[in-house]
Amino acid sequence: MKSVNGRRTVMPSDRIGNHPEDAEIRFFTGTWELYPAEELAAAAVVELDLGCGVGSYTAELAKRYPERKILAADVMVGRLRKLVKRCRRMGIGNMTILRTEARHLVAFMLPDESVDRLHLLCPDPWPKGRHSGHRLLTSDFVSQLHRVLKKDGIFHFSSDDEPYYTAVRGVLASSGLFVEAPEAIADLAGIRSDFEQRWNDEGKPVHHIACRRIPRLAHTIGH
Ligand SMILES: C[S@@+](CC[C@H](N)C(=O)[O-])C[C@H]1O[C@@H](n2cnc3c(N)ncnc32)[C@H](O)[C@@H]1O
After folding, report:
1. What is the rounded distance in angstroms from the CA atom of residue 15 to the CA atom of residue 49?
2. Which residues have C-beta within 8 Å of that of residue 6, sequence separation ≥ 6?
3. If DSSP codes are grouped into helix, strand and coil, which group holds residue 209?
4. Is the C-beta atom of 55 inside 6 A of ligand 1?
5. Residue 204 above 90 pLDDT?
């Protein structure tokens, strides 16, 4: 994106496919493709960083667990291109970078029970009341998370925004689909995402919650 006579213009080199990093990003936006189930099944452990941004956290995760498959997803292609460069610099070979919309990925594209641990770190909190409908984490979304996580899979959420964090804890608790499991992210205590670092530098704490997926209760009719 470049400013020409005060107007923001997409330069040809910015167009998808014209950038040197684009060969290493899978572009799913605007399609109804399903993620290849056999590819995920081939990895013993799959982790997904949803809304990864420029992906410092994702890259550290991939470096720490080279035997795991790490999925990094975001809508902003510029951020993903930076992540491609970071992976090259760090010699990371176990990350798949996806340009896709988070709701779409979780609701339609990923197979059932395909992810071991899903991270949603510092998502946009939409703090103004009239914008809260834009928040990603709703009870519907929690239900879809339950679908894509494997048995005993982990959902990891963080936010600097106290009201959003409290609301998310409430939605998870009332769903009956997850129980809190702080030990499930103890291995990641030393890693901070780009936004977590940014908020900490400004003196703001970032709160984390980790929950374990539990089976849905079977509902019987007539009892
Ligand atoms: C505040 S940043 C956090 C980035 C990173 N997780 C971190 O903690 O540093 C939110 C990220 O989510 C991405 N994002 C926002 N809405 C999204 C959506 N609907 N689908 C996919 N990515 C989204 C943005 O492009 C941005 O990179």
Report:
1. 24
2. none
3. strand
4. no
5. yes
